[in-house]
Amino acid sequence: MLIENSLQKIPNRFTREYGGNLSNAVFLKPPDGIKWGIYWTKHDADIWFQKGWKEFATYYSLSHGHVLFKYQETCHLKVHIFDRSSLEVSYPFCGTQIEHDNLDYVSNDSVEVLDNSVNVLDEVAPSQKTELKSTIPCPQPLKN
C-alpha cells in the first residue's frame, strides 16, 4: 500500500463506504498505542493520505501490502501491520496514551495535491528498514 513519496491512495472500496464520514485529519492507531494524525486530500474521485503519511510509513518501515485499516469511528482508524510473510507484527504497547506530533494543525482548505504525477503502484520492492532515533520509550516490535 505504500508509495515512494508523501501521498498514499486510499482504496476505492474503503472510500465508498467511509469517505463521507472522514474528518480531516484522521487518526491512525497502530498496536503500539501511538496516535498518528494524517491529513487527506481528494483528487478527482480518489482520497489520498497526504500530510503525516510519509512520517508514519517511515516510522513503521512500511512496504506494499503491509497495512490493514479498520474503521472505528468518524476520525479513527485502527491499524494492523503485517510483515512480508503475512504475519501481523506484534508491537509492545507503550503503556501511555501517546499522540505522535507529526502534524502542524492547519485548516482543511490548505491541504492540496503537491504532485500530480503520483501513481498507485501494484508492486513495490521491499523497503530498507530505516533506523530512527525516537524519543518514545518503546521496545522494538516482536514477530509472532
Automatic annotation (TrEMBL):
Keyword Transferase belongs to the record: no
Species per Swiss-Prot/TrEMBL record: Cajanus cajan
InterPro entries (UniProt xref): B3_DNA-bd, DNA-bd_pseudobarrel_sf, Plant_B3_domain
Keyword check for DNA damage: no
GO MF annotations in UniProt: DNA binding
Residue ranges occupied by any TF-B3 domain in the UniProt entry: 1-85
Identification of the protein by name: B3 domain-containing protein At3g18960 family
Localisation: Nucleus
GO CC aspect terms: nucleus
Pfam families: B3
Keywords for this protein: DNA-binding, Nucleus, Transcription, Transcription regulation
